[in-house]
Structures are given as C-alpha cells and as structure tokens.
Amino acid sequence: MAYSSRRGGIRLWLAGLVFLLAVALPVWFAVAALGVKFEFWDYQVGLGTLTRDWGAKFTTAVLLAGLVLLLLGLIKAPRVRTVILSILILLIAGLCMGRLLAMKSVAESLPPIHDVQTDWSDPIMFTDAMMELRGDESNPVQADPVISPVITRIEQNFEAQKEKAQSGGFSKFMWDTQVALGMQSDVFYWKDLAGQRVADEQARAYPEIEPIIVAQAPDTVFQVAEEVLASMDMEFVTRSQGRGILEATASTQWFGFKDDVAVRIRPEGDGSRVDIRSVSRVGLSDLGANAKRVEAISNELESRLSEQAS
Fold first, then answer.
1. What secondary structure, in 3-state letters, does 121-155 show?
2. Which residue from 4, 130, 131, 150 lies 20 to 30 Å from 177 (Cα-Cα)?
3. Could you tell me the end-to-end alpha-carbon distance of the chain, in angstroms, rounded to an integer?
4. SS3 237
5. Beta strands in 29-166 (DSSP E)
6. In this predicted model, what pLDDT tens digit does every residue of 152-184 receive, in sequence order?
7. Residue 34 C-beta-side C-alpha neighbours within 13 Å
8. Residue 195 is inside which H or E element, if any?
9. CB distance 15 to 69 below 8 Å
10. Chain-centre distance of CA 184, in angstroms?
11. Please, what CATH class does the domain formed by 113-145+207-310 belong to?
12. Up-side HSE of residue 130: CA atoms within 13 Å toward CB?
C-alpha cells in the first residue's frame, strides 16, 4: 500500500487513462475530417456529428477530467507525475477546444452562405462542363439565390436539443458547461436568416468584395489569371480565352471540400474588368472560405499585373 501511495495510486492511473484519451482527441478530429475526404461518410457526419457535436462533448469531458486530476494532484502528495500528466491533458484538450471555439466564432459572425461573387447584378453562371462536374447532388448555382429554408429546420433541431439537454441532470450539466466555456450557444445564431438574399448578406459580411478594373488588355489579364489559379493548386475545368472565362476547382486539405471558381474577364475602356465567383458544392455556411478565395485571387491578380506594368 505504501509503495502504491508513493507511486500515485489511483490518481496516477486515472491521469494516465485520461492522458490517453487526450492524445486520442486530435486523432478523432483527423479521422472525422479524412473520413469525409475519402468518402467513408458525408460532411454532415464528419463535420457535424463527429466534430461539432461528439467532438465538442469529448473535448469538454477530457478538459474537465484534466482539471479535476490537476486539483487532486495538487492537494495531496505524491503529486509530480499526476500534475505533469494533468497539465499535458489540459494543454492538448485546450488546443482542441481553441480550434473548435475559433470555428464556432467564425460561424456565428458570418451568414450561412456558400456562394460569393464580385457582382450580383451581373452574375457569372457556370458552363455546362462545370455544372456536369458539380452534379445534381451539389448546391444549386443560381443568378439570385436566397439562404436555404433548411436553416429553419436546423433552428428547430437546436431548440429541441436544448430542451432535451435541460431535462436531465448530467445532460444539463454538460450543456451548461459547454455554454460557459463558449463551445455551445444558448441562442440560435442564424435566427430569421432563412429566405434572405445571398447578395444582401454578402454585402453586409464582405463589403470589400467587388470587381477589379485593371489597365491591361483582356488577353494579358487572362494569361495572368490562369497563372494565379494554377499557383493556388486549382484543377482547371474550362479555359476559354476567346470568351474570357476560366473555371477551376479548389479542394480543402483536410475535409476535401470542393469549391468551384469562375473568373470572367471583359474589356473595360482601355483595360479590363475582372469578376470572380466561388461556390461550395456542399454545406450551408462556408465559414468565409469562398470570400477569402475571391479576395486572394483578386489581390494576387492585381499584384502580378502591377509588377508587369512597373
């Protein structure tokens, strides 16, 4: 018994067990993402259930266990090994929580849109080749889309989940703990957005996105735009210099989400006007990915053209 006490006893054993669970956390999230990428399950399972739902609960449980073990390690000797393991648990779980909180913060701050372009008054429409590649299961590509009414059903599910969580002691504790830690919202943050025009919500969220006017002729701009898309590791679908249209597909590293991009180049005075559209194939909110891509293409294109002119 004395030997067991000197070694840390049950506290050290529990700390070791929870440490293994903490190490499993990043593996869990990696498997959730790669499962979507390699089509073992769809994005709703990988991003929704495994990451945002079960992943958040898993992370919260490990973090709370780490805090309890740290306190137990501090109040009674021997404590060194238990405290060290507890700190490592908190560090790993804290980093995972930080990623989840960052994702949640972005989702709450942006509208649930997945279609962004520089000019909704004159929308770019994809070619038949791109639409065939997207397939019937993908998000529709429309001239004036509205936010999906699915948002209403998601809100109803949120309220039902919240009500269910309040009905049980442990489930209420977990819900309230996640709310306190910022991992769960007590209010549905996309309330009343169903049916709103995507163009209006984009203008509020990303007012900086607009067409770019450059001094170079369309043929020159087309060649540079082609280089820009290639430098971003996009897979080309259509390249029509005569029509001033470039289409390509971008894929995310972990989940393998595919977003389709179109660049349209037209004469404007002595130079050219460039419009860009980026549309996700699946999902409601893109967490700002398409807006960032449109901005990145615009900035890189202007930068390269400016270097050519100087």
1. CCCCCCCHHHHHHHCCCCCCCCCCCECCCHHHHHH
2. 150
3. 80
4. strand
5. 115-117
6. 999 999 899 888 888 888 888 888 888 888 878
7. 6
8. none
9. yes
10. 16
11. alpha beta
12. 30
Instruction: For residue 271, give Cα distances in angstroms to 168, 213, 242, 286.
Output: 66, 7, 16, 33
Consecutive H or E run containing 66: helix 54-75
Six token digits for residue 159:
């309220």
- Burial (0-12, 13-18, 19+ Cβ within 10 Å), 109: exposed
For the whole prediction, is pTM greater than 0.85?
A: yes
Closest by alpha carbon to 263, among 124, 75, 85?
124
* Structure tokens belonging to residue 138: 């993908």
The residue ranges of every structural domain in the chain are 2-109, 113-145+207-310, 149-194
How do residues 257-278 score in pLDDT, each as one tens digit? Answer: 999 999 999 999 999 999 999 9
E strand intervals along the chain: 115-117, 212-214, 235-240, 245-251, 258-268, 271-280
Q: Look-up: residue for tokens 């007012």?
A: 207
